[in-house]
Amino acid sequence: MKRYQVPQFIEVEDKIFGPFTFRQFVFILGGFSTAFIFWVFLPRFLAIIFGIFVVVFSLALAFYKVNDRPFTDIMLSAVGYFTSSRLYLWKKTEKIEARANPEKSERIIGADAPRVSQGRLRNLAWSLDVQEKFKK
User: Count of alpha carbons within 13 Å of 78, Cβ hemisphere only?
Assistant: First the structure.
């Protein structure tokens, strides 16, 4: 019987550049090179502000995880959410109807539904009961 080795830890990326994976290295290199370009072409005050923002964002892309998911996945999901169209089919409305006695106020969910009086409701219930008996 031949034994085959099953690959383990297939979700772990290889460390290529020292302690960094290729993806982390690219994000760090891109962030620091963008900050350097800001330093060269912008006034120092603006370069420091924009450079700090870019470096922190690139470090977040490289290392930060939200619920064990990379920050890049979160950013891609956020961009997809804000750029796609959304269609709302139904929203639950909740209204509180106060009567003469505020302690016995009713909570009506879906208040846009048609109202049925008690007499009409009894007639409907009776006719359903009668039809059910005739079907048997």
Answer: 7
